[in-house]
Write a structure and sequence with these properties.
Helices cover 96% and strands 0% of the residues. The model has no long low-confidence stretch (mean pLDDT 83). It has one domain. It is built from 3 helices and no strands.
Length: 157
């Protein structure tokens, strides 16, 4: 019994040393990996935030231009109103184009995410179908069927 206890003691010491070495060797790479992942997520979030701020800034600029055009239209005569109207239409068109581009970019991103999700679902569905088929095959193959298949294979040889 003392020999078994001695062996257990050395196995425990070896295991502790192994875990200590693994911790010492993998601490920095694993930490770097986790930090890189977090940094990537943060940078994507910051980029999205900046794009949103840029879109809001463009919208605010368009709204400000629209307000300026309205104020000018009130101050001038009929000719000035026509000029202001053309300018207002241009600003609205720019805002619509900007909004359209933003919506198109968002739709493209959504389509990409939907495609990725569909592909992932296809993979999962295929895997589940294979698993179900394996279960059905295993359930349907009885020793008798297995014996007939072996005999049939041997006869073909």
């Amino acid at each position: 019994m003392e020999h078994g206890g001695h062996l257990l003691f050395w196995k425990t010491v070896n295991t502790i040393i192994l875990f200590a070495l693994l911790y010492w060797l993998l601490r920095k790479p694993v930490s770097k990996f986790i930090n890189d992942g977090i940094n990537a997520i943060v940078s994507r979030f910051e980029k999205a935030k900046q794009e949103k701020e840029e879109a809001l800034r463009l919208l605010k600029e368009a709204e400000e231009k629209l307000e300026n055009a309205k104020a000018e239209a009130e101050k001038v005569l009929e000719y000035s109103k026509e000029v202001a109207q053309r300018e207002r239409e241009q600003i609205v068109q720019e805002a619509k184009q900007t909004a359209k581009r933003i919506i198109e970019m968002a739709n493209e991103e959504i389509e990409k995410e939907v495609y990725r999700a569909k592909e992932e679902l296809k993979k999962i569905a295929a895997q589940k179908a294979v698993e179900a088929a394996e279960k059905k095959l295993k359930a349907s193959v009885t020793p008798e069927v297995n014996k007939k298949l072996i005999e049939s294979s041997l006869q073909k040889l």
